Amino acid sequence: MELFDRTIQRLSAMADFRAQRHKVIVSNVTNIDVPQYRAKELNFPGALDDALGGGKGLARTDGRHLAGSAGTGNHEVVDTAERVKLDREMGNLAENQLMYSMTIEMLARKFRGLSTVLKEAK
User: Fold this and answer.
1) Does the pLDDT value for residue 93 go beyond 60?
2) Parallel, antiparallel, or unpaired for β 40-42 and 77-79?
3) How far apart are alpha carbons 39 and 31 in whole angstroms?
4) Which backbone phi and psi does 51 adopt, to 5 degrees?
5) Cα–Cα distance between 84 and 32 in angstroms, integer?
6) Count of Cβ atoms closer than 10 Å to residue 69 Cβ
């Protein structure tokens, strides 16, 4: 029996993804005035594969499903080939912060549940 179930592992992976995405968004905002700089983003399909099982890939259970891509082991930063737009980046930053906060809150609830179980087992 594992003490930390897959939910905790996936939430931890998502928190890591959100923290790394925060760095990429801040980098985009920081370099907004650099003439040749193009906005960057994390490769979400690769990050999803990593979070769901270490880059195993997405299962295609129906012929109408889109094919998924394999993960790279780390979150891959890709160039979007677009200029940095401050309003878009600030929106991304706000969304990412909300998702990070939600992920951390869900992790905290899981740990509070484990703590309750351990206290009741005494």
Assistant:
1) yes
2) antiparallel
3) 9
4) -70, -30
5) 6
6) 15
